[in-house]
Design goal:
Length: 366
Amino acid sequence: MAKLLAATALNAGETDKPVNNIALSLTGTGITYQPGDSLGVWPTNNPDEVELVLSILKTSGSKSVSLRGQLANARDALTRRVNLREPTSELFALMADHARLEFESVRLSRLAENDELVAEYGIHDVFDVLVKFRSARPPIGPFLNALAPLQPRLYSIASSLSAHPDEVHLTVGVVRYDLNGRGYHGVASNFFAEHLAEGRRVPVYIQPSHGFSLPADSSKPVIMVGPGTGIAPFRSFLEERKATAATGKNWLFFGAQHEAGDFLYRDELEQFAAEGHLTKLSTAFSRDQAQKIYVQHRMIEHAAEIWAWLNEGAYFYVCGDAKRMAADVDAALKEIVAEQGGMDTDAAAAFVKQLAKDGRYCRDVY
Ligand SMILES: Cc1cc2nc3c(=O)[nH]c(=O)nc-3n(C[C@H](O)[C@H](O)[C@H](O)COP(=O)(O)OP(=O)(O)OC[C@H]3O[C@@H](n4cnc5c(N)ncnc54)[C@H](O)[C@@H]3O)c2cc1C
Ligand SMILES: NC(=O)c1ccc[n+]([C@@H]2O[C@H](COP(=O)([O-])OP(=O)(O)OC[C@H]3O[C@@H](n4cnc5c(N)ncnc54)[C@H](OP(=O)(O)O)[C@@H]3O)[C@@H](O)[C@H]2O)c1
């Protein structure tokens, strides 16, 4: 059980992408970690949503229920144990059985059989199901048992124990978006942003990294590419390399939408750069000009130097968006290797593959 020390906004002023530094105390937990590890967090559901569900189902929060074989009270089960984000086919089937209106029962049965209809019917979470099918009000016990279990969330650790003894820090992007005319909030990111009060505790565990770690030889240079919340493990790397007086050079590529609002950990990074600890800091602010500028564009601009660092034995790390950024950065790296190393496409791909095999090209993407 880690205690919240502080949730601090990392944005300066206006932003479309709020991000918080979450500092947790590990005192008394016996938990330790290495830079590159992730923290698993068991969040709780939004208390307002829990009360709404109780009221819609006309149930007292203190009612005793058996959930997957364990006794709990309804409020606690809704708060800690069930997934209110993704409706299951079991929920649709249960609601179909309890719908008093025939057309609602038919629709719910269709949803139970074909989850591709969910988007077509404008359903995104469990609350939508209760609101759209007003004649279906199952008892709380079967309702809870028809929901999926609440899952933990993983966060890349953003601190080093050498710099923050007995603490773990996270870089949490707050998930909020509009769909079908209503707002939705991500469970864990809003739990940290809004619902976990300072001094309160949250269950956590360490998910050790498999290979996403600093070079054993601390004289090796590191190149880190971490746009958005992908910066997290690199703050940890930089803190650790400073605290342990590692002699290797450090180069960070950071990207975000706007320099003014979204330059996460700006003061710390600029301080590291001023001290010479951060040998190079290359930034890409995508929306501060007419044309998008991303981290991979900055990499291409510095192709010769990246190639020189790789030849000095640099390790190359990428963290953040798996869907587009990681693939584009991978393509840029191969382009740099081909152009600077005078290789054809196949030879450049083989070179990058060998880097990965040697543990010198490491990715933590999600
Ligand atoms: C190894 C690993 C490391 C990670 N590290 C970090 C980190 O350092 N920082 C960080 O912020 N996150 C990180 N994540 C992501 C993190 O685990 C959570 O997924 C994230 O915080 C969202 O959780 P949530 O509970 O707030 O949102 P949830 O309640 O889980 O909601 C998220 C879901 O909402 C849906 N959704 C989101 N946006 C939209 C949209 N615009 N339209 C429609 N649907 C949408 C998607 O289905 C998405 O999966 C990491 C993930 C992994 C696997
Ligand atoms: N599972 C979840 O719900 C969840 C929650 C939080 C974060 N995440 C994921 O975590 C990752 C980081 O999210 P984030 O919001 O901190 O940052 P992000 O969305 O990765 O944005 C950071 C910067 O990267 C830019 N970018 C967009 N496409 C890119 C590309 N193809 N190559 C390089 N840069 C690109 C963005 O520019 P533009 O925006 O101007 O295009 C922005 O300037 C993303 O994968 C995000 O989906 C997931």
